[in-house]
UniProtKB/TrEMBL annotation, chains A, B, C, D:
Biological-process GO terms, alphabetical: L-valine catabolic process
Annotated ranges, domain 6-phosphogluconate dehydrogenase NADP-binding: 25-183
InterPro entries referenced in this protein's UniProt entry, alphabetically: 6-PGluconate_DH-like_C_sf (IPR008927), 6PGD_dom2 (IPR013328), 6PGDH_NADP-bd (IPR006115), HIBADH (IPR011548), HIBADH-like_NADP-bd (IPR029154), HIBADH-related (IPR015815), NAD(P)-bd_dom_sf (IPR036291)
Annotated source species: Polysphondylium violaceum
Main location as per UniProt: mitochondrion
Domain 3-hydroxyisobutyrate dehydrogenase-like NAD-binding: 186-312
Keywords assigned by UniProt, alphabetized: Branched-chain amino acid catabolism, Mitochondrion, NAD, Oxidoreductase, Transit peptide
Entry's EC annotation: 1.1.1.31
Metabolic or biological pathway: Amino-acid degradation; L-valine degradation
Record-linked Pfam families: NAD_binding_11 (PF14833), NAD_binding_2 (PF03446)
Compartmental location: Mitochondrion
Protein's recorded name: 3-hydroxyisobutyrate dehydrogenase
Length: 323, 323, 323, 323
């Protein structure tokens, strides 16, 4: 009760701020990524009202002055702009369209910025429902990882009209460095999914080729050097080489810790696979790559960096096939 | 008969030149690539003795002053250095070790530079046999295509001892710009095969992702732009994008003509697949990529540029599934 | 025993409601399969009330004495037992749970028999909702094709409790010959999806092996004979061989017409792929098989029998790779 | 030396016997399979002269009265009929065409029966060389495993002319029950390779489907029962089900021990892959299956029965992805 009362008071305060000319920003989803993003908005001088299912996550933001809401609906009642950062499509549907969801209380004219990575079809579906409430929703998935979220250097891939993109840009610039307009609603997700499709495939490709070359007698640094000055050049070889020791600061060199987990890559490849399936387009290597990451995760390596596929794919040293 | 007599005379002349301090260079395999390479050696002032199964190919070089031999053995009898550029492992075995092959008449101390792309095991096997004749063989496969061969800007990936590499370098520099020492005999082929393994995989990956993105509503140039500034960045997207219109001068934009044929990519992926098989290492995406190019070739597209996989993989416009 | 007695009484009540003493059977989805199934129920003396989006489909049944309803809701208002045969999960959700759907007007105690092939998760979800309306839903997907539907010789794979299975059996026996109890709700779909997963994979396997053998000089009938008496023996080789001419009455021999379309196999493999994905289990060959059928459909062959993969996979006769 | 002298004497005796109307049978390769085959020939009253690299293997046969030779050449000098059972193509080439090989001393008119499983191209190549020595070689690979070899119930798939097949049959019938004429030289290998291609693919298919079904709640025996009465029916499900407990006497039920090792399946799939590659035919599932067995072997499971792929493919029980 007390906390409800407290919220009621806070609510009035917020209303007050909100009408004083400064927009109130709602933030829902304060995990590894969202927590840093919300913090950066506060650092840039914004007032926030936040919600998360974890009290710890909420408290970290409350300590920095964010107002606390008890549900997405309560956020939406107050906020002029809402940023969401959620794990998957199902969470986005529930936070926006579910009971006590954003759309149940949203104010006309609210700007909705979803930076979750979800399938493009869901992004369009939820944006359509938001439009029925006269709210504008843009899909703004990110790349850059937890490090980029903390440093405020994320890349945002934004789907929405040119006009809406201009409205969203100032807020996104508080959290990222590179804000790219991809096209209409949904294309932010399309860009993210397609980018990570290439990334997953080329990481496996580089892993297979590095392993093959090393087993056939080549020095790994020399082999990577040839790749990087030739037609095998790619981000996975040059900046994130999966062979331990090739790069001083790679995830591979520190035992495949940190970085971008295999389970996350598996999720993103799954989005690509689903999207292609929904329109009947073949995705041969995409599917094979997805299966390989599914196997890596099934064997308990989902938490390790996605470059661990290098280690996973190679022949065991102790060959006990002849037992 | 006359031409034999003529050759005999030329032969004597050559011997003379050859002992005058200037090495005589043999060149075997004067096709699309080798023809240009031989021409560049002549341009740099070298004397050549050449052989090819095609008279037309031979005549083009003879017109520029090259001596003509009737067999690899006849080349080897005279030359101090021999460069070979042949289609596949079987030709290399035959030209070096067959009847009337190079090793049947080779002079001790001859330097053998094989710029064919073949499997590393064959490269090592033939080099071993050459060593039994006190000749030194290095594997020097190239990248850069017909354009690079003509312009003399090829990259050579060289396998052999450091000392032998230094001896080979001046000759290779007449034909290429970037001469890379990869390690011991065979590693030139390893580097080439591994490089093209990554290339084939990433070309299919980029093709699948560009197709998926475009079909889901993205502008192809914008999508490629995002790839090229993010973690999907790779040679296949940046310099050789398979989607027509994205790059002004790509093979894709000119109807997948010219460039590097699908049949050649299929051959190189086949070398990777065979090499991995011979040592029991898995090659998941490599095998899938090889199968895809096998299918592309089986359907009659082997002569088109390897980026044609973009066109091949997509759904037909006239969907007659509901017939 | 008591509960059986009780059921007997309930059954009589139902009989009574139906007015003539005979239960009224609703049938929704009167396409290629459902039309024949409904006809067989009429032939066995049942009274039907039917709905389909196509008037032609409805009229064929009306001509045989079926009552016509204008919506699933109108069917459900009257029927004691409802059979549905729909194309995919989305249709099942809509026909049962949508506006004017079955559950909007359903009578307590109604027996719901869904013979559509859909994903097991949706089957369970809809059955749960039916239970909230005190109705009992069983998943009863079929095998046997249009021929089996017409002849009344379908196999039904049934998911539901043992008691409910006994209630459903008399109705299913009017439409099929082999009524198999698979386990709890959803397992009928599981059995169907897993069966067709093996079927799709083995059809491709037999196609690849028959093609390879024939191209290497074997007589196709002799090769099939060896398979069928050895460890390659399978339904796809023995009863449905994809090589034209091996079996007199196969789809292959009549130009891949009739039979089970590639688009349907693609759909069923898609269900397997989705189910495995939802629980994180790898499905390597299942995914490759799905991609191959996706490609077959993308090239416009979705309407041809699924054994057409034999024709699709092989090398073109006119090899124009050397153009 | 003494034993050489002894052999010399025996040699004379053998010649004598050999001309007395009873053919002397040479046997080379007395391992797990060949040892039993040779024993069965002796049991049927044949005189044998044998060679193997292992003295233990040779001694077992010598104890039963077989003459011992020191090389394939020494076998060939004496024998009228020679049976070989060797691990792979390289051994066949060496035993027949190498130094001290069969062809170096072979008598005109000798009948050569190679029951090794090798690639069809090598089978034809060696048969051609034998023909140059006026000897007749047939490829006679077997199925039936060590059990069948011991019991004399092997299936022989025989490639050669109809007349030669008739000459070979009486000898093969001493070692097997089912002697199948496949066509010209090489087709015995083609049949074997194609059969095992289907076998490997369907074993993985059944494994994936059994695993999927069980994880989705189905009883494994019930699921197998449905497969075996429906279109998923195949040898791998019915007689060799990979799910432990489904069949009482399967390799799966006894911990994947005994049976046909994964490394052997990997070898046979490799022959299929190579054969398809050599003629440019696609082999999508065949390649994926080969890669999967390559991975199984790379992880040290090559010695376990090939149905172990069921165990290998599934998700670990202890899901530590969330670590």
């Amino acid at each position: 009760m007390l906390s409800n009362r407290f919220n009621q008071l806070m609510f009035n305060n917020i209303r007050y701020y909100s009408t004083s000319g400064k927009p109130l920003i709602g933030f829902i989803g304060l995990g590894n990524m969202g927590g840093h993003q919300a913090m950066n908005l506060i650092k840039k001088g914004h007032n926030l009202v936040v919600f998360d299912v974890s009290k710890d996550n909420v408290n970290r933001l409350a300590d920095k002055g964010a107002k606390v809401a008890q549900s997405p609906a309560e956020v939406a009642k107050q906020a002029d702009v809402i940023v969401t950062m959620l794990p998957a499509s199902a969470h986005v549907k529930s936070v926006y369209c579910g009971e006590n969801g954003i759309l149940s209380t949203i104010k006309p004219g609210t700007l909705l910025l979803d930076s979750s990575t979800i399938d493009p079809a869901t992004a369009r579906e939820v944006a359509d429902k938001a439009a029925q409430h006269k709210a504008t929703m843009l899909d703004c998935p990110v790349s850059g990882g937890v490090g980029g979220a903390e440093a405020g250097t994320l890349t945002f891939m934004v789907g929405g009209s040119a006009g809406d993109f201009e409205k969203a840009k100032p807020y996104l610039e508080c959290m990222g460095k590179n804000i790219v307009h991809c096209g209409d609603v949904g294309t932010g997700q399309v860009a993210k999914v397609c980018n990570n499709l290439v990334l997953g495939i080329s990481m496996i490709g580089v892993s297979e080729a590095m392993n093959l070359g090393v087993k056939l007698g080549m020095d790994p640094k020399k082999l990577a050097g040839i790749f990087n000055t030739s037609s095998a050049r790619c981000w996975s070889s040059e900046l994130y080489n999966p062979c331990p020791g090739v790069l001083e600061n790679s995830a591979a060199t520190r035992g495949y810790t940190g970085g971008f987990g295999s389970a996350l890559m598996n999720k993103d490849l799954g989005l690509a696979v689903d999207s292609a399936k929904s329109i009947g387009e073949p995705l041969f290597l995409g599917n094979s790559a997805h299966q390989l990451y599914t196997l890596v995760c099934a064997k308990g390596e989902g938490h390790r960096d996605f470059s661990v596929v290098y280690e996973y794919l190679q022949k065991n040293n102790q060959d006990n096939n002849k037992k």
